[in-house]
Amino acid sequence: MLTLRDLPKYEALLAMAERYPDLDVSAVEAYLTFLRTATDVHQVMDGHFAEHDLSMGKFTVLMLLYKAETGLSPEEFLTPSECAEMAGVTRGTITGLLDGLERQGWIERQPHPGDRRRSIIVLTSNGSDRLEAMLPRHFRLITAMMTQLTTDERETLTTLLQKLRSGTQNSAPG
Question: Contacts by 127-130 with C-beta closer than 8 Å and gap 24+?
Fold first, then answer.
């Protein structure tokens, strides 16, 4: 099976650049390094989430609800559509994530206090307790991954990733 680790190295990219003049070797090399790193980070975090019967998507929803309920965000409570928008997923995807979290007992749907036609999503006490229990290890994992970088390097990385992100927003396939 071909993996990101099997993607072309610098010398192979140089050879490809002779055939494809639009190939910027340093850009492709940086891109591939970024992808390999992102894959490694996802594997670490996926393993961590699996220990708690979660996925990245479910964890994202839990953190949105946690922020709302602990006063770390301006929202007092969130509707399913607000969760979808904030998590950057479709309404169909958020329905599946919420259904799974509800079956697991992490969240529950309740009537909206100001609009009977809508519902809000809240962490259950079980969900809140389980999230609180997993967050220390979660933050230790992130810290462990970032220990190779100095504080200045982390700030530079953040700046560079923000630039890369703006490049993705300004680029269209085709």
Answer: 127/62, 127/65, 127/101, 128/66, 128/69, 130/52, 130/106
Instruction: Identify which of 31, 27, 51 has the alpha carbon closest to the alpha carbon of residue 39.
Output: 31
> Domain total for the chain?
1
Owning domain of residue 73: 54-146
Encode pLDDT of 53-109 as tens digits: 999 999 999 999 998 877 666 667 889 999 999 999 999 999 999 999 999 999 999
Q: Is the pLDDT of residue 1 over 60?
A: no
- First CA to last CA distance, the chain: 28
Query: Residue 11's pLDDT is what?
Result: 76
Mind spelling out the 3-state secondary structure of 101-150? HHHCCCEEEEECCCCCCCEEEEECHHHHHHHHHHHHHHHHHHHHHHCCCC
| Residue 48 placed within a domain | no
108 in Cβ contact with 162 (< 8 Å): no
